[in-house]
Amino acid sequence: MENASIPLTSQWEIFCQVVDNFGDIGVCWRLARDLAASHRLRVRLWVDDWPSFARLCPPAAAADPAEGFAHLGVEARLWCKPFPHVEPADVVIEAFACEIPESHLQAMAARAVKPVWINLEYLSAEDWVGGCHRMASPHPRLPLVKHFYFPGFDATTGGLLREAGLLAERDAFRHGGRAQWLAARGGDALPADALLVSLFAYEQPDLPALLRAWERGPRPVVALVPEGRVLGDVARALGRLDLTAGDRIETGRLSVVVLPFSDQPGYDRLLWACDLNFVRGEDSFVRAQWAATPFVWQIYPQHDQDGAHRDKLEAFLARYTAVLEPRAAQALRDFWLAWNEEAGLAEYWPAFAANLPALAEHAVRWCEELTAQPDLATGLTKFCFDILAAPR
Ligand code: TRH
Q: How many angstroms does the Cα of residue 20 sit away from the middle of ligand 1?
């Protein structure tokens, strides 16, 4: 939603350090676009890994990273060393506790009106999040105050990224564009009762067992697999050396179609087209919830000693299944745990599949509940402009 009270000249910047060749840029690129499009802000996005950024934003591949690149209202710049001398923005967002270059911090501290400094945190459904959301943390040396901003699932948090008009666009696609979209991917030849699945995941050693269950199962399954980390496991399970976009393999009741990695709007269409989505990390996990269809979440593997990773999964499971009928809740929990523990997929698939109708109804209700909250970019914009407007 546009906020007419916000000056058009306000400049924001987001610092994004790309972890593990790809992660985190998905959230930052989406936030940058939403701030520019829905809130009319001038947004600069600093990325330290240009090729990873260009996977999400293909026109950036042809740009000279040193010169930067403007697209969809966002100015993307390479975060290089030494960091260039640039006037800090009115609002400076460090994503996921990445460290802003010292020279830039000094420039922020030197401004007469200090920038609003935000640390945008990872998404978690854990209860402690609400208590830390918006917490202020003064810099130990410089006259700057950082505020923690937590995305989340209830009103005590900053909410979730949801662009204006997203759900209307989803519904229009389902009523109008889906059949054509599927036909362009060979979907016009699908059995009428096929279960359409999208598969975006980290490595999954237990995948062969699940693919075998799909191959021999009572209902045809069509798995649409975008190019990415899980593709090696899909290939091995199907006895292939490798797979690339455009490949299509039929075995028993299973068809596997490999798709090219698309831009973010293209990925939304994939989620909207399918009956069941396997998603991972943070951004695709949220998009699956806006798709309002059943999904399976693979949490980012941290191999942590203290179980933080499992706590995060349990916290979301508890929220998501709180008002779900016990049989469907158990089936979902068993299958999600199997997916994350990489064992038992074939064992838990039949109950999960049998509960898909109940899970589909639940996904719609859950999406409606989330939609009642303000979206993250709107809440963040208001929070920052309230600080900017307050006497300091
Ligand atoms: O990249 P990820 O694994 O991200 C993760 C999380 O952010 C996690 O919290 C972090 O710690 C870790 O990185 C390092 O998964 P995620 O968040 O779903 O991001 C993937 C992005 O890719 C998302 O924006 C959707 C997008 N995408 C496309 O644009 N096109 C595609 O074809 C596909 C499959 C995905």
A: 11
- C-beta of 269 in contact with ligand 1 (< 6 A): no
> From the CA of 179, how far away is ligand 1's center (Å)?
26
Q: Do 3-160+374-389 and 166-371 share a fold? A: yes
Rounded to two decimals, the pTM is 0.96
- Please work out whether the CB of residue 96 comes within 6 Å of at least one atom of ligand 1: no
Superfamily of domain 166-371: Glycogen Phosphorylase B; (3.40.50.2000)
* pLDDT in 10s for each residue of the chain, 392 residues: 444 445 556 899 999 998 776 779 999 999 999 999 999 999 999 999 999 999 999 999 999 988 889 999 999 999 999 999 999 999 999 999 899 999 999 999 999 999 999 999 999 999 999 999 999 999 999 999 999 999 999 999 999 999 999 999 999 999 999 999 999 987 777 888 999 999 999 999 999 999 999 999 999 999 999 999 999 999 999 999 999 999 999 999 999 999 999 999 999 999 999 999 999 999 999 999 999 999 999 998 876 656 778 899 999 999 999 999 999 999 999 999 999 999 999 999 999 999 999 999 999 999 999 999 999 999 999 999 999 988 77
C-alpha 264 – ligand 1 centre gap (Å): 10
Query: Ligand 1: which of 30, 126, 261, 282 to mutate, most ligand atoms within 8 Å of CB?
Result: 282
CATH code 2.40.10 for 3-160+374-389: no
Give the 3-state DSSP-derived string for the chain, with helices as H, strands as E and coil as C.
Answer: CCCCCCCCCCEEEEEECCECCCECHHHHHHHHHHHHHHHCCEEEEEECCHHHHHHHCHHHHHCCCCCCEEECCEEEEECCCCCCCCCCCCEEEEECCCCCCHHHHHHHHHCCCCCEEEEECCCCCCCCHHHHCCCEEECCCCCCEEEEECCCCCCCCCCCCCCCCHHHHHHHHHHHHHHHHHHCCCHHHCCCCCEEEEECCCCCCCHHHHHHHHHHCCCCEEEEEECCCCHHHHHHHCCCCCCCCCCEEEECCEEEEEECCCCHHHHHHHHHHCCEEEEECCHHHHHHHHHCCCEEEECCCCCCCCCHHHHHHHHHHHHHHCCCCHHHHHHHHHHHHHHHHCCCHHHHHHHHHHCHHHHHHHHHHHHHHHHCCCCHHHHHHHHHHHHHHCCC
Domain spans, the chain: 3-160+374-389, 166-371
